[in-house]
Design brief:
Layout (H helix, E strand, L loop, with lengths): L2 H18 L3 H8 L5 H15 L7 H4 L3 H9 L7 H4 L8 H17 L3 H12 L8 H8 L12 H18 L16 H18 L16 H12 L14 H9 L9 H12 L5 E5 L6 H16 L4 E5 L2 H17 L10 E4 L7 H7 L48 E5 L1 H4 L8 H9 L2 E4 L7 H17 L3 E5 L4 H12 L9 H8 L5 E5 L6 E3 L9 E6 L4 H11 L5 E5 L3 H15 L4 E4 L5 H15 L13 E5 L13 E5 L3 H8 L22 E5 L1 E2 L6 E2 L1 H7 L1 H16 L6 E2 L4 H9 L10 H23 L28 H7 L7 E7 L5 E2 L26 H8 L2 E3 L7 H11 L19 E5 L4 E4 L2 E6 L3 E6 L1
Parallel strand pairs: 1-6, 2-4, 2-5, 3-4, 5-6, 9-14, 10-12, 10-13, 11-12, 13-14, 18-21
Antiparallel strand pairs: 1-7, 7-8, 9-17, 15-16, 18-19, 18-20, 22-23, 23-24
Helix pairs in contact: 1-3, 1-11, 1-12, 2-3, 3-11, 7-8, 8-11, 11-19, 14-15, 20-21, 20-30, 21-22, 23-24, 27-28, 28-29, 28-30
Amino acid sequence: MPLWQHLEDSAAVAGLLWDRWLPARVRRLIGATLPGGEADGRRLAVWLAGVHDVGKATPAFACQVEQLAARMRAAGLEMRSQQAMGSDRSMAPHGLAGQVLLGEWLEEHHGWAPKQTGQITVVVGGHHGVPPEHGQIAALDNRGHLLRTPGGSRALWRQVQVELLDACAEEFGVRDRLHHWLAVKLPQPVQVLLTALVIVSDWIASNPDLFPYYPQDVPRSGAERAAAAWRGLDLPAAWGAVEPLEDAQELITSRFGLPPGAKVRPVQEAAVELARSMDEPGLMVIEAPMGEGKTEAALAVAEVFAARSGAGGVFFALPTMATGHAMFPRLLEWLRRLPGQEGMQHSVLLAHSKAALNEDFVDLMRGGHAVSAVDVDASQAPVWRPSDSGRDASADLVAHAWLRGRKKAMLSSFVAGTVDQLLFAGLKSKHLALRHLAVAGKVVVIDEAHAYDAYMGVYLDRVLSWLGAYRVPVVILSATLPAGRRRELVEAYAGAGGHAAGHSEFGAVAQAGAYPLLTAVAPGGLPVMRRPAASGRGAPVRLERLHDGMEVLAGRLAKELESGGCALVVRNTVKRVLETARVLRAQFGDESVTVAHSCFIDVDRAANDAALLRRFGPPGKATDRPVGPHIVVASQVAEQSLDVDFDLLVTDLCPVDLLLQRMGRLHRHQRGAGQADRPLGLREARCLVTGVDRDGDVPVPVRGSVAVYGSYALLRSAAAVLPHLDAARERPIRLPEDISPLVQSAYGDGPAGPDGWAEALSKAAAQHQKHRADQADRAATFRLGKVGRAGRPLFGWVAAGAGDADDTRAGRAQVRDSRESLEVVVVQRRADGVLTTVPWLAADRRGRRLGGLELPQDQVPGLLAARAAASAGLRLPSPFSYAEVMDRAIAELEELYVPAWQVKDSHWLAGQLILALDEDCQTRLAGFSLRYSQTDGLEVTRA
């Protein structure tokens, strides 16, 4: 295909994307920096897409295909052969070459100063995902022969390049605008967005399914060619939100199907009113108790913010894959209830590595036409091996066929996914501009903000600062947010550095003790707060000490549940979960004890969550609540997003915000007047706190808890709840009134606990501060820099970055303070050596058998069997995250490497580590014995 044709195609795509796909928010942001507003913004975007590959008109690029190079030599454009040029060619990648040529043209033909051109030309230089660095630019400046062959043809090379750039300026309508742009200083966020738009335009124009190579099957003009491609792409338009006119009661009732007579909560009403009162959509932090409808409030605010800001979608960021799965159907239901959606299509994404196993998400893919995805910058890696940490964790499908793959998927209009996908926007990595474009046109909702540690907080704060620069509306939700952290989030978004950070309004944010609390700030503005009333749905919870010990626990539960009832026991480690379950089964029987933790295969964990909701969910929805005594022994999976309700809670000591989350599962719903439908002895909400050795003067948490949370957080938590333990009857924890005081006490800097605890707390605090400083230092290694001054080019924007950032075991470890984790697909190996899916898988929605399906090793398994196998994904526990153990495990997993599964058509199993269990569901790996069961999940012991 001629170079000019690809440039014309790319420019046409950029124009179509601007007119029919780009959210109004993004168009306004780009246009606001130019004298001609959005019209100039469109011209600039189209022109940059039209010149992005001008660097291909150089000897360094043209020499690659000898047959074509010979034709150019015949026309007078001399060049050495590719072999003769040698390694010097690497100094002139065509993006950088185009940047230099465009800069020269602007200086020599349009009077631009050298310091002005970089803000424009960097878009061309960075269109393959990484803006050039200063050293690369200097190196090419010293190798002019790569741009134009010295000697007699040098002038002809220059003439061709200038003619091409002149023609583009004329064709794409900027020739008469360039002098008007001389005084423009493009903000760095605008440079990023223009770069991303050019990348997307280039990728679409490079798709031969949409833009056929020459000769064309049917002669078409450029406009006809682009129109046909756009029809074939059928890319859904951005959401055009209309500001709702209803009051908060009507709005939330209509969007979420509240039953007749139901009243919205005060927090929800106040959030909608605050969103409407803001001069400009910005950041809103909603702090309210568990069960107060924060999710509904966030989506109602998002609708208001989107209409007022021109945002074209919503990204709902959640702490875990499990919470993402739970949120996705709620997001879909909200979308279906939005007004003005008749006949409209919107792209929707569940953004995490297990998304393609979600039935609601897969249903969205059915019936769509197929357009091949193209990523012209995808690395041409050799066939995947288990030792490759950079492979996607599993198949990645999105609701629009072209928006397939880790780099484009977040460009969908509506996204629910893990917070990692948002934090990647703060990680220096290739094609970072695409992640910024993905969030710049949306309203971003960040759920359970208290769940992110200091390491993740470093990335979150930097992302918030960029979101503020893009003027992206953000809603942050938390039940338990320390006041100091609240201020950090607000300042990061507002861009409040230096003098502004000391403004009294920001100080008030850090001092506010009201609860519930709403805090709002516009980009560059000062915060305002609202203090709505609580709904009054809470209840007092009496805290009691329980000595640690399995037999002690079993005896106490036998006494508490002698008249029936349902108890939740939350342990801080999977090991303690399984040890506890064994003891309790001996006391109560297997049928009376259920286990829930993270070390189940994906399909079993989803089934476990569904079973918990069916048995312990809200009255009227739970259809199978046990009559006799029943105990659920769970890890931290019980803390988040499960609407389950128990009569009694036993919990290991944990940080106080998590303790309060666990209490949210206790007497969560009213069961009869005065809880009369609960057993007589369990009508008062009680929480028994264990997992602590209290024989000495200072409580000593069990080793597993210290390994997970650290001594300091546990001791501060113990100090915060001590008055409620010492006077359990007189001082129960009142929910929600005591939530904020407890959190601020545990996370504040003031003294805590009795005088006798001072030495232990001081020692733990020193370790904690050292750990936090280490977290911040390590997080800063690949963290994106601050927003630079307007007009400063993005040169070196992602220098010394992390390469590709994606949802792999290595990618997630970059934005979470965790080692890489191994994820495997669990299959079974029969005695005859044949591999099958695990035998207990339930039939699918259409009644087809999934368990025990054979998986041939000489070819790609059938679609049904492959997807069934992939549904048995499992993340191995922490012992396998240590480098030596991981290396040994990978080496052993190499033994079950199946080359036939590593092909393009093997969407479900390519790139997967395969763990084969024997017919007793056991195996050995890296010096450990592994045993799996449907009831207990994975149990790991040293061999």
